[in-house]
Amino acid sequence: MGTGLAHGLRSSTPNPQLPTALKILIASTSSGSRGGGELYLCYLGRSLAARGHEVALWASSHPRMDELCALFGKIGTVLRQDYTNAYDRRFRSIASHLDRASARAAAESWKKFAPDIVHLNKQNLEDGLDLLRAAGDCALPSLCTIHLTQSARYLRARTPWIRDWIARRALTRYRGPMVAVIEERKRNLAEFLGSAERVHAIPNGVELYDLSERGKTRDAVRREFGIAQDSLLLVAVGRMVPQKRPIAFLEYAARILERLPHAHFIWVGDGNLAPEWDRWVGDRQLGSVIQRLAWRSNVRDMLFAADAFLHVAEFEGLPLAILEALSAGLPCAISPNLLREMPFLNDTNSVAIGDGDAWAETLADPGELAVRGKNARRLAEEQFSFDIMAARYEALYRETLQRRA
Length: 405
Fold this sequence. Notes:
Rossmann fold, seven-stranded parallel sheet, 13 strands, globular
């Protein structure tokens, strides 16, 4: 947590000129409607509205944002504008950074809405650089959340040196606080910028599911999919894209099936690797125990039916899917590369999967999984609830406004 935010959460001299209820405009770089970094906007908006604030979403008029905007429309105002995401541009962040017209248009829209503060939501270091400029042009108080703070070089992107240089230049010129979604991502961002002065960490929050409904939901879902009540079921939720490594998920599933032949696996999500997934499963005739389902915004029932959550992504910010699994009382079976970045996951609430097979013994022990699942739920309650996230952002909003007063 940034030092300024920590101070704001302890206490500060209240400014009587600051409004009790804030008018907050959340601006999206508009990458899509189904990624965790975009769905987070609905979670944040919902939790801020519950605390009495007026929330609004600014997003591109591109059809891929329709689904997210419809969800947010149940929470607050939605503003749509002709806006081009960096990854729809031929030269990506370079074009975005140089597009002053886009920045001016966004700034005018934001000024017209007249919020107390603008909250810019970036998926990574290089997207939305024109919106960083817009935040300066509109002269409104603002802050910026960045979900993935790994550099282009770290991510092995093309022409990483120029992409990192442009992103660093734009972020350094931006004058508001910057928020990472986990301490490790905060360290990445501070190292990238060469300073931790304006960098904070506020973990994402999720709904705390009502576990009293878990038993009957588990029974119903397992009957629907033909899975015995005593069979091990591992679930994953995510887009079928290289970052999420769905084929690695299948390879782990095959290893588990060698030890636990009655195990079942379900992946919830769509993406461009779906055909490869289908071929892999079909070639090995594993369709009866490995399934994939179309994307759905509510995954609670699938999580309630599972015994553990299998997550093997190449890199992450703080994935909402993992937090939802914790909320559902599921231990996370997670690859070592992610465990290093998420130290809150350990052998009390998760299962480290690696080259050996010791972890398979843990998955074969229902009692041990239940204990780790209870610890996972406790972790969600103590660190990752909607209210905790909203309170931390509210404190940073007020600190930012007070500095501008």
